[in-house]
Structures are given as structure tokens and as C-alpha cells.
Amino acid sequence: MRAPVLDGRLRLYWPVATRLPSGAPSTRWEGPLSVFARVEYLAARVHTVALVEQTGCQIRATIRRRPQAPLKWRAEVDGRRYRVQTLSPHAMPGFWVLMLEEDHGKSGSGGDARPAAGAA
Q: Which of 13, 56, 75, 93 is the most exposed place for a label (fewest CB within 10 A)?
């Protein structure tokens, strides 16, 4: 079995819980962590065995396994922002498969759902 070719790039952002001056909880996004990935654009709706349901995921990204699991993180691919919807192991040990869904800025966790525009 061959390792996947990681010929693309994606930028990962992770949530950090903070408080507003009023004391209300908020989420701020740290990053980016730039990683090599195999990026596959999917059809509008894809039936995946891992999810056993139809999802609105537009991208399947394969990355090397990292010390921290990027579940509920945000990803940026070709300048567009996505949410990491699912995380599953790849057939080849040492890799993860991320299913990415477009991020429209509605996270439900409070705070800004998008990474800072000027973060580098």
C-alpha cells in the first residue's frame, strides 16, 4: 500500500475560549498552521461510508496524523474557509481524512466563527 501524495496545502485554525470585556464567553481562532494535504473536491452531496448519511461536505483532505486532533477546527483551502466536519483514519497508518464543509460564519459556539482575516 502506498502513502497518499500530499501535493496541496491547507491552513488549519483552532478555537481558543476567551471572555469579552463584559464577561461573556467567546471563541477566538488561533493559527494558522500550514500543512501539506491531498485535497479532493467532491460533488455537491456525497454519500460517505464513514458518515452513513449524505453530507454537504465539499472537500476531502488527507493529512499526516498530528499530535492534536483537528476536529471542530477551521480550515482554509485556496482562500475559502471550511469547517472540519469529520475526522477519520486513513487506510494507510499515520494519516487522517478530514471532511470539510463550507463555513458560513454560523458556529453556534458563540463568538466569531471565522479566523482573523489578516492572520498569517
A: 93
